Structure formats: C-alpha cells, structure tokens
Amino acid sequence: MIQTVAVAGAGLIGSSFGLAIKQAGFAGTVLGVSSERSIAAAMQVGAIDRGCSLEEAAAQADLLFLSQPVLAIAETIRRLDPLVKTGALVTDAGSTKRVICDAAKGLKRCQFVGGHPMAGKEVRGAAAADGSLFRDRTWVLTGTADTPLELEFRGWLRRIGARELLLDAKTHDHLVAWSSHLPQLLSTGLAAAIADTNPAAARVAGPGLMDMTRLAMSSFDLWSEILETNADEAGAALDACIAKLQALRADLPGEFAKASEFSKQLRKK
Q1: Which residues, including other chains, have CB under 8 Å from residue 2's CB and lie 6 or more apart?
Q2: Which residues pair with 139 in a beta bridge?
Q3: Cβ atoms of 78 and 17 closer than 8 Å
Q4: In the structure, what pLDDT confidence band is assigned to residue 269 with cuts at 50, 70 and 90?
Q5: Across-strand partners of 66?
Q6: Alpha helices (H) along the chain
Q7: What is the SS3 assignment for 28?
Q8: Which of 2, 26, 66, 137 falls 20 to 30 Å from 178 in CA-CA distance?
C-alpha cells in the first residue's frame, strides 16, 4: 500500500504530481528531494509536506517518483539499489525512456516502471505547479508488471485524470521524436529564422506566429538532454520534415488537405 510518496525533483512536473494526488485524495506523506529553493517553493504551493535527502526518501517511500532531467534520473537510479526500501515502486517522468530503462535493469530490491506524462508548460519550477496538469493527458508507462503496488499507482494516475498508454521504451522514443521533439525543433527553427532574417515581421505578428513560436520559449537546458538521449530518432524525424518542406511546392493543395485532416483528427483525441 502506498502511504509515503517521495518526489525527486520538485519542479513543475514533480510538484504538479504531488499536488494532483493530494487533490485526488491521497492522505499519506509526500516528501520532496530537491534544492532548498525548490523545496521551499513546493511546500509553499502545497505539493509536498517536507524536504529530505535522497537517502531518507528512498528508505521511507513506497513510491519514488523521479522527475529530474533525463540523465539525472538515470544516475539516481544507478545509486538507488542500496538505498531503496525493499519492495518499493520506482517510476519516473523522463522525456526519453531507453537510457532510463537500461539503467533500471540494475535494480534488484525494488520494482520499476518507466513513465512519461505528456504534459508540461513553457515555464519551469514549483511555483507553476498545477494539480490539473495531467488531466486528459496521455501518461506513457513502460515495463509494467501488474504487481499490487504498481496497480495502485496506476489507479492514482486514473484519479488525477491521466490516460494510461503502455509502450516499450524503443517505441516510446520513436513516437515522441515526432509528437514532442520535432514540434520543439520546428518552433525553435521558425523563431530563429525570423530573428535572423526578418525580425521586423514581429510588427505584424498575429495569433498564428504566436502559436507557432510558443514552444520556442522553452529552455535549451531543459531540452539538451532530451535531444542527446534521443538523437537518432529526433534526427530522423527532423530530416523527414525538412524533406517534406522542400517538396511542399510540388502539391500544395494535396498537402494542405492531408494536413488539415490530420489536424482535425488530432483534436478529436
């Protein structure tokens, strides 16, 4: 039974998770492992009950939720086995899954299920935490085993409104390269192209440009490890999109129709 949850990485996602389960009725303790500043911010918004070290959190938590950057998650997992409570469930919110799931193969004393909530904001930090952040959003899980503790965790995902999707790590990384990483790269490329070649266009910018460049406000610090750990898939998606843009003039009516239909179907999810 999950009575103590520990959130390692009390930023936007970790603090939103803490808020979400509290608002959904979790009556146990939520611990936070992060910097002093992040712990203070997470406590102020009510996402965690108190801060502690990773060693203390791992020893107490029935559920350990890792919401750090991708490489930090993998490094934390490599340190966990001597520290973690026997039989506990470890999960994560990493944006790529292969490197994390590979690291988790070394865990012996606890259970592990990879995770990736498909939710977020352009801003970071606990101050932006939102208990409804995951509502009606896909939450990918990898390596599930249907143990009682895991099933209880998945029950909490349903309570906070997330939509569970089971994928293996390789398939996850292939799909998010197109659904998440490519949109970020295109938004960044569009904003950078205008900034470099025609910044005066900002004087006549409308909602279209504002919508298309929203993701470009994201920090490279956040994205560097995501793109590093999924470079092959993100690179292939970017190459395919560049080829499509170069070929677009050949059949504008057909490409407009195809794109319009896909966009309509996407919004019916």
Answers
A1: 26, 28, 62, 63, 89, 149, 152, 153, 156
A2: 117, 164
A3: no
A4: low
A5: 8, 92
A6: 12-23, 36-44, 54-60, 70-80, 98-104, 148-159, 169-176, 182-197, 207-212, 220-228, 231-247, 252-266
A7: coil
A8: 66
pTM greater than 0.90: yes
Calpha distance 253→247 (Å, rounded)? 13
Q: What's the token pair of residue 169? A: 């790590």
Q: What's at 246, amino acid-wise? A: Q
76 in Cβ contact with 49 (< 8 Å): no
What homologous superfamily is domain 171-266 in, according to CATH?
6-phosphogluconate dehydrogenase C-terminal like domain (1.10.3660.10)
HSE-CB at 59 with a 13 A cutoff on CA atoms is 5
Fold of 4-167: Rossmann fold (3.40.50)
Give, as one character, the DSSP assignment of residue 25: T
For CATH 1.10.3660.10, the residue range(s) in the chain are 171-266
On the question of pLDDT at 143 being above 90, the answer is no
Of the pLDDT bands very low, low, confident and very high (cuts 50, 70, 90), residue 21 is very high
Residues in the chain: 269
